[in-house]
UniProtKB/TrEMBL annotation:
Residues 147-376 form the Sigma-54 factor interaction domain. Keywords: Activator, ATP-binding, Cytoplasm, DNA-binding, Nitrogen fixation, Nucleotide-binding, Phosphoprotein, Repressor, Transcription, Transcription regulation, Two-component regulatory system. SUPFAM superfamilies: CheY-like, Homeodomain-like, P-loop containing nucleoside triphosphate hydrolases. The keyword DNA-binding applies. Residues 5-122 form the Response regulatory domain. It comes from Geomobilimonas luticola. The keyword Mitochondrion does not apply. This is DNA-binding transcriptional regulator NtrC. PANTHER family: DNA-BINDING TRANSCRIPTIONAL REGULATOR NTRC, TRANSCRIPTIONAL REGULATORY PROTEIN. The modification 4-aspartylphosphate is found at D57. It is found in: Cytoplasm. Its main location: cytoplasm. Pfam families: AAA_lid_14, HTH_8, Response_reg, Sigma54_activat.
Length: 466
């Protein structure tokens, strides 16, 4: 959240100036307040999403800091609060944590310490907002992007999708990362008898087991530390509709067992509850893993696999449907030109040649990222080759092209991850972003494939990317 808005409440002007300068250097917006009354007035008069984090001193000149925190939590229950405390007021900071503060820091604090706390709090807030958007998606009017294709290969996939959508069967969507699995899942929902109800999606690899279970099943008040109110899970929120479980191959055996019960018994028990709730949901699952191999090696339940995999839809990689590259590229060009209000209307001949001949290991997601970057960098009304990260060196001339290498999906995935890691200097967060997977999944893949990086002399780790 590079453009996040941080509120600072401290009666020490020096502290406010120091923090404002520190945060501004990171591209963060800052508002400062010298007392609790002015802070509360600001929060009472604003909107729920106009502040991303509050950094508050535990000592206020006009009112008790704990009372300020209580009032803040009444006005903005979801706003993350980090308490600043001096030596001798630790007890107050601990009390603040009990009242819902995210964390506390002790003065004087080094720049690295406060930035680390702020980064963690903002990342948590970003995830919370993404989950909130997911849960509030009601009566979804249509798929988020038009499905663009001209190839016969994808036409067959699309026709199959429409045929199976009318059934009530659970569906498994297989394909490499970036091929559009969620788009197909949305198409299934929008063409089914459930289209009047919710379509919700959940990336299973992006959450810890505890958070994943809470997101799926919900929890009752007091089920665990921090559960100050009851919360509905996606199983309940998606009642009558469709629940899309992306990266299903990454869920733990414990969650697999609980999910199997939901499919078999059509009920579930929220975390901390004792009574089951009935549920009517169609499951669409997706993975880029070889689930049959996962079943054989005991990492994925065979009974759950067959319950989810009633109908299989296999999405081809973009390199196997090159006829779709040009219409997709033009579609993304128009999308980002409108969004950025730029007069970019087409793609130059050489640039289009590079796009169509490139192998696209990141598939449609990679193509969209490339086109967004190209629109940003375009100097005229045409996308030219010089603004593309794809170069002729990335494309083997046709005269010297060897026979295609027959390799497994696992080998292809390993080589692609290794290539991205190498290109970013083993910067894990950036690599995960380019790959379209979570940092947790990337760390697991690095261990699974035994990937390492030959660090040049003088190399220093970038934050948590060591």
């Amino acid at each position: 959240m590079a453009s996040a808005n941080i509120l600072i409440c401290d009666d020490e002007a020096g502290i406010c100036r120091y923090l404002q300068k520190t945060f501004a250097a990171r591209g963060l917006r800052v508002e400062t307040f010298g007392n609790g009354a002015s802070l509360l007035g600001r929060l009472a008069g604003g909107t729920p999403d106009d502040a991303d984090l509050l950094l508050q001193d535990v000592r206020m000149p006009d009112m008790d800091g704990i009372q300020v925190l209580k009032r803040v939590k009444e006005l903005r229950p979801a706003l993350p609060v980090v308490i600043m405390t001096a030596y001798g007021t630790i007890d107050a900071a601990v009390e603040a944590i009990k009242l819902g503060a995210y964390d506390y820091v002790t003065k004087p604090f080094p720049k690295e310490k406060i930035l680390g706390v702020i980064d963690n709090a903002l990342e948590r807030e970003m995830l919370r907002r993404e989950n909130q958007v997911l849960k509030e998606e009601l009566n979804r009017p249509g798929i988020p992007e038009h499905i663009v294709f001209t190839s016969q290969k994808f036409r067959e996939v699309y026709d199959l999708t429409l045929r199976v959508a009318a059934s009530s069967a659970n569906i498994m969507i297989l394909g490499e990362s970036g091929t559009g699995k969620e788009l197909i899942a949305g198409t299934v929902h929008d063409n089914s008898t459930r289209k009047g109800h919710r379509f919700l999606s959940l990336n299973c690899a992006a959450l810890t087991d505890t958070l994943l279970e809470s997101q799926l099943f919900g929890h009752v008040r007091g089920a665990f530390t921090g559960a100050v109110t009851a919360q509905k899970g996606l199983l309940e929120e998606a009642g009558g509709g469709t629940l899309f479980l992306d990266e299903i191959g990454d869920i733990s055996p414990a969650v697999q067992a609980k999910l199997l019960r939901v499919i078999q018994e059509r009920d579930f028990i929220p975390v901390g509850a004792t009574r089951p709730k009935q549920v009517d949901i169609r499951f669409v699952a997706a993975t880029n893993k070889d689930l049959e191999k996962e079943v054989r090696e005991g990492r994925f339940r065979e009974d759950l696999y067959y319950r989810l995999n009633v109908i299989t839809i296999n999405l081809p990689p973009l390199r196997e449907r090159k006829e779709d590259i040009e219409p997709l590229a033009l579609h993304f060009l128009r999308k980002y030109a409108r969004r950025m209000q730029k007069e970019v209307a087409g793609i130059g001949e050489h640039a289009m040649q590079l796009l169509t001949e490139y192998q696209w290991p990141g598939n449609v997601r990679e193509l969209e990222n490339v086109m967004e970057r190209a629109v940003i960098l375009a100097r005229g009304n045409l996308i030219t080759a010089d603004v593309l990260p794809v170069r002729s060196a990335d494309i083997m001339p046709a005269a010297t092209t060897p026979p295609p290498r027959l390799i497994s999906l696992e080998t292809l995935e390993r080589e692609h991850i290794e290539r991205i890691l190498t290109s970013t200097g083993f910067h894990k967060s950036r690599s995960a972003e380019l790959l379209g997977i979570s940092r947790k999944t990337l760390d697991r893949k690095i261990v699974e494939y035994g990937l390492s990086f030959a660090r040049p002399a003088g190399w220093q780790p970038d934050g948590d990317d060591a």
